[in-house]
Give the backbone structure.
Amino acid sequence: MIIHIFKLTTFHLNKTLIKAMHKVSSNISEISPYFLIYGSFNEMEVRKHIELFKQSRITNYDFAYNPKMLYQFAIKNRQHSFLLHGTTYACMCILAFAGVKLNWVCWGAGASINKRNWKSILFTPFKILIYHRFRNITTLMVGDKVTLEHDFGLKGIEVLPYYPYNKVHFKDRLMMLNKTSVHREKLAVLLGNSAHCIDSYYELLGKLSRFKGLVTINCMMQYPQVDKRTLSDLKNKGEAIFGKDSFFCDTEMLGTEAYFAYISKFDIYVCGKLRQSGLGAANTSIMLGKKVFLTGKNLQWMRSSGLFVYDLNDIEKGSDSDFFTPLTEEQKKLNFDKEYADVEEITNKWIQYLHKIAKK
């Protein structure tokens, strides 16, 4: 049995990943999954997870609402391997010093030292101490592997994207939306992928300002929740450039199919974060035939996967026509087929990886 740990407050991410882990390992006894959700008690978040487990017919799960509960659970289950998905440093610390067989799937946060952030620099020795207690670390893209090894002196990090549960389960729906075209008076541009990217949004508004009157701009602000002033400042800045009828901040959390429909309303997806961010939104946009502009680790990863995506710098370097011209049907098909080309390979790699950490 492998104990998978997720943070209570990241249900919007957990729901797909829990289904993915259940899909690839539930029928193999040596790596059968047990899910532990960690975080301060929140009735709504607990209820959402319980409903997910019921719908997915998952019975092996539990909750730990404080450090004491987590530590007691860890001591009781020391014979099993633990796999942290994202999660928090407090959780890492408790489990590391409980002496369990600890492994980590890095979601990008904490994968490098931010030289412009004093907290990141100050906590580097602590991170080195914790990271070196992991038996195995896995990243979702090569860029995070490189910075973890360089900045923290780690070795043997593996790169393994998650099993793409949604794109497999909803392939027909995604294919239908990919082939659906909508005529719009203005080009619809989506800035992604969350309120974590708000700093990059301000920069992107400047890059895109030359297209005012020709585009609508939507900023993904669904999570985490920000205060009213922060949201208002962004809205005022965007409206001052593009107008009240052409700039929007989207805050509503959506179910899977509603999320696909939401992404399908746009022509272009843009993410200005240098570190890993918005892979789900970027991949969904690619599968739906959208033009995608990325930078940093996200751009490197997508291109290394053979996907046809644009460099964020192309917006400033290129002409207006370059920006407005959609992908060709050939390019759309190439991207769609690439997204599904390695599903079986990823499934087998996850099974092999889970077997490996179960034996350690």
Summary: The chain has a mean pLDDT of 94. The chain is about 50% helix and 15% strand.
